[in-house]
Design goal:
Layout lengths: L2 E3 L7 E3 L1 H5 L17 H9 L10 H4 L4 E6 L5 E8 L2 H20 L9 E8 L8 E7 L5 E8 L2 H13 L6 E4 L2 E5 L4 E2 H7 L8 H18 L9 E7 L4 E7 L23 H10 L2 H21 L1 H10 L8 H15 L10 H17 L1
Antiparallel strand pairs: 1-2, 3-4, 5-6, 6-7, 7-9, 8-9, 10-11, 11-12
Helix pairs in contact: 2-10, 7-8, 7-9, 9-12
């Protein structure tokens, strides 16, 4: 029996499971370089209160002497490590991290950390920005929270801002020169959900498929890449008669850098096949196009309410290096063919492509 896979605007592909698995998997051959934050972006961050003077920098976090691998409850390597610091370094670092948390969560009001302690720090050398994950605990009730300390990367910051503007999600982060602080995004990792919970009998699988279609559409429009299952989380909200689902990106390292347009289409990553299969089984051409249209309409409403902010973000990108000339040419030609729109040939930067995507969405919604 043939299953429907419907994501490309106006075009419905017909695949069997075997045919889909034979599609060439999208590969990202090397890590994206980190782009320093330019003056235009620094000005933008100050304008929208994303900058801060922090007592701890990313470089301070690197003053460990050795690391110990972090294993999960099944004894498997998590690709995170526990850094070990000299006692004098650790004491100063922990106090500084408590202040950082106060700035992130309460505009610097340190009263919220009076009863909190830094429980542990974990380091991931595997990621592009080699992040540190910090766990902070309230001593009075053992409630804990996480936040991240990363290298400030211009393309990642653009990804966070576009997530704030174009998606239904809010993001909380701060930047101080070469240091980026990010709030933890709560949810079940996409790969864990697809392995253990996607077929839960209490869940409406059509709702999950619908959310994946919308997520796929947001990534294409905002040019957010590498959304393999372990780079997004599933948020589940019980409603009065059913469960609601939302997929949220948690990794913005591949924000408009790669030239291959399929990198920005989660449907093409084999790690996401359980979600694609769900769409094949529970959606048809008409419903997929309906959900795509719903997401575009939502984006239009967000852009209209944030039109000044998105213009300021666009202006900040003019002198900011975000990719290579070769990747920009490859991507604009890829989107030109994908949308059958020659206007993409005039795009000179990655943000030009995003801007044209948004303009096209606005035009489509008006029709």
């Amino acid at each position: 029996m043939f299953l429907h896979c419907a994501f490309k605007p106006g075009i419905i592909g017909i695949f069997t499971k075997k045919e889909y698995m034979e599609i060439e998997d999208v590969k990202i051959s090397r890590k994206k370089p980190i782009f320093p934050v330019g003056n235009g972006l620094i000005k933008y961050l100050r304008m929208y209160q994303r900058d801060a003077k922090l007592p701890i920098s990313y470089r301070d976090m690197l003053n460990f002497t050795e690391t110990v691998p972090v294993m999960d409850k099944f004894g498997q390597d998590t690709f995170w490590e526990t850094p070990l610091y000299p006692p004098s370094v650790q004491d100063q670092l922990y106090e500084g991290l408590k202040v950082v948390y106060a700035k992130l969560k309460a505009s610097g009001n340190t009263r919220i950390v009076e009863h909190k302690i830094i429980d542990r720090i974990e380091y991931c050398a595997f990621g592009n920005t080699k992040p540190f994950r910090v766990r902070i605990i309230n001593r009075l009730n053992d409630v804990y929270d996480y936040f991240y300390v990363k290298q400030a990367d211009a393309s990642r910051i653009y990804g966070l801002e576009l997530e704030e503007i174009l998606s239904p999600n809010q993001v909380n982060y701060l930047v101080d020169r070469d240091t980026l602080i990010e709030e933890h995004i709560v949810g079940i990792p996409g790969d864990v959900f697809s392995k253990n919970q996607i077929h839960n009998e209490d869940y409406n699988r059509t709702r999950i498929a619908k959310e994946f279609v919308k997520f796929n559409e947001r990534c294409i429009i905002s040019v957010l890449g590498d959304m393999r299952a372990y780079n997004f989380v599933m948020q589940i909200t019980p409603d009065f008669d059913d469960f609601q689902f939302r997929i949220r990106a948690i990794d913005f390292d591949q924000q408009f850098y790669e030239g291959n347009p399929k990198v920005y289409m989660p449907q093409y990553f084999k790690e996401n096949f359980p979600y694609v299969k769900l769409a094949m089984e529970h959606l048809n051409e008409k419903t997929v196009l309906q959900y795509q249209q719903e997401e575009r309409s939502s984006i239009v409403h967000r852009v209209r309410s944030e039109r000044h902010r998105i213009k300021d973000l666009r202006d900040a990108s003019k002198l900011q290096e975000l990719s290579t000339p070769e990747n920009i040419i490859q991507l604009r030609e890829g989107y030109r063919a994908y949308y059958d729109n020659d206007a993409y040939a005039n795009c000179k930067s990655m943000t030009d492509i995003v801007e044209l995507n948004v303009k096209n969405v606005i035009r489509q919604v008006k029709l």
